[in-house]
Known about the structure:
By secondary structure, the protein is an alpha+beta fold. It folds into 2 domains: 57-129 and 170-315, Alpha-Beta Complex (Penicillin-binding protein 2a (Domain 2)); 322-733, DD-peptidase/beta-lactamase superfamily (Beta-lactamase, 3-Layer(aba) Sandwich). Strands 2, 3, 4, 5, 8, 15 and 16 form a 7-stranded mixed β-sheet that branches. A 6-stranded antiparallel β-sheet has the order 11-10-9-20-19-18. α3 (95-106) crosses α9 and α17 (396-406) runs antiparallel to α23 (583-598). The longest helix has 41 residues, at 2-42. The model is unreliable at 1-9, 611-615, 708-721 and 730-741 (pLDDT under 50).
Amino acid sequence: MVKKKKKKGKRSYIPVRMNLMFFVIFILFSLLILRLGMVQIVFGQDYLREVQRTTDVTVSNSVPRGKIFEANGNAVVDNAPVNAITYTRTPKTKQEDMIKVAKNLAKLIKQPITKITEREQKDYWIIKYPNLADKKLTAKEKKDYEKKKDGDAKLYQMKLDRITKADLSMLTDDDKEVLAIYREMIGGYNLTPQIIKNENVTNEEFAQVSAHLKDLPGVDITTDWNRIYPFGDTLKTILGKISDRDSGLPLEEADAYVAKGYNRNERVGTSYIEKQYEDVLQGQKEKIKNITDKSGSVVSTEVIQKGRRGDDLVLSIDMELQKRIEKIIGDELLKSKQQPGHQLLDRVFVNMLNPYTGEIKAMAGKRYKLDNGKPVLEDFALGNITSSYAMGSAVKGATVLTGYKTGAISPGEQIVDEPLHIKGTPTKASYVRGGMGRINDLTALKRSSNVYMFKTAIAIGHGHYVPKAPLDLRSNTFDILRTSFRQFGLGTRTGIDLPGEQVGFKGQDTTNPGFILDYAIGQYDTFTPLQLAQYMSTIANGGYRMQTHLVKEIRQPVEASDRLGPIVEEIQPKVLNKLDMKPEWINRVKEGFREVAQEPGGTGHSTFYSTKYSSEPTTYKPAVKTGTAQGPYAGDNPNYSHQTLTWNLTMAGYAPYDHPEVAFSVVVPWAYQEDAYNQGINYSIAKKVMDAYFDLKKEREEKGMNQSTSVQKVQNIKDVKKGQEEARKENEDGKPSGNGQ
Length: 741
């Protein structure tokens, strides 16, 4: 009986375990069904959207830059259309896909291989010969580095370091051509067209690629542009440069440009006008929205902003005048170099401004160089703002006006021109041996008296001259003179719309009376040629220092046309400061400048007295101031030290004297000493460039052309026009009183 009971208990235990197992399975299946229900019913739409998810990727395509025109509407910087072949890769494009396309493309075009580097050849060698590259590493090296954080990078660098010249010789010219194409493919961003070739693309290459586009995924044909210069090298140093596609954005400014929406391989202005007006010239980029699926494939493309060529610039430069002036200074420079004593002379500068607006009509500079023993003249217009020189007596107008303002002298005051013997200072005198005797301010300007200026500076510094005794001047005399000179534009920036303008070099601050007297005749601090022109313009227009500028208008582009579009912005004249001086003082100095050119005894009289138009004083009635300054040589001729003394020859002026329409400066550094006394190259250049200006004006008038002057465009300060009209009226009523000599 006991045994039967045990069997019965065992049979009842098995169904319990099976029931428990079935129950667990039931629960698990219930959870699985519940989870599937949640996925399908609750989150089904979310997962479906994830599968169907797309991404919007917007890319910008560059457009041609704006053009640059001169004052008469002729293009000085233009765009030439060129055939171009591009490649656009997607996020899912693989390396082997690009290499395959590069190989196929290499069969259709000739790609220059000069730009590929040794490093790029090594990278390509590793791609082409992976097994040989792998053998450059030992098993131990692979094991040691495979688990390190930067192990792959270090192993790759080991491969690069161990590739020999013999290895690279395995790459054929065909391989290098493929590499040259491939390097361009990987240079840009995903979905952004990258230029593969845009130089010397033949019509045959263009047609062949066009016919095989279906076999070249990512490749396309388009039209690109290159900058061209219809006037050759004229003004090229101030027009500036743009980067190429290889260099792209300047490294030091790349982040700032990228923040503005530029691509890193985009062409931008890197110097001068091209850089200064980059925002204007760059234009409105074409923006394209690419919609990609989860795998990175482009499913649709939409243009969301049409591109537009950059706005055009119109310069105030008159290119016909510019060319004539450049020929004049080039001929004069070459002629002088053929004469003895001019071994250091190697540059000449000329500026012409509208004195009422600051518009630059011409900015010329030439530099003499030897190229394989042959003389060459290169454009150095940029030197008008980036180089500076002692200007000599041309600045004496500022000295006289400073004397009036400080009460050191009064208009018409007579001073004895005599050699000055100051203890501890070399004898200081005018060029007339023994002195000019008793002269007034007008004669001092006309005959370019140094001593009149010396004694004016002594009075400004509250000094008292006693022959052979020390001369004490107030410690602030330099500050008084420099502050006053800066009002004219001497020793301060002219405000020109170009980067890199220099202010010149300021001599050491000192109470040494000899140096202070040198400053008064323009032989201590240095000034730029453009500053000299602005100084003369300030006197010519009655005392308003106008900001100089090269760009006078910004205009909308006219597509597929050389015409000028509507004005976007007209650059208004800007007054930087007004001379704190009486109009009659300014007019008296202007009379002195007139006498320099038009009265017997004036240092410029024999140069300007007659022209081909008349035996009377020149019909354009100039007012000028001549200048010479002795100083140390500062050029790069290795045969002469910077202790070598030489001469800077200058002249500045305006015309007509009673209603100025043009102001000018001529600067000839490091000339022959005899030229300082014999009316040398600065005189002949000044006369010829002024003749050129008025000749051109007459020619245009005879053809019925109206040469525009912008005298009435000063609008930003209310009293400017009134003050200038008053100054003109005083000139027209009669010249200021004075006894001349």
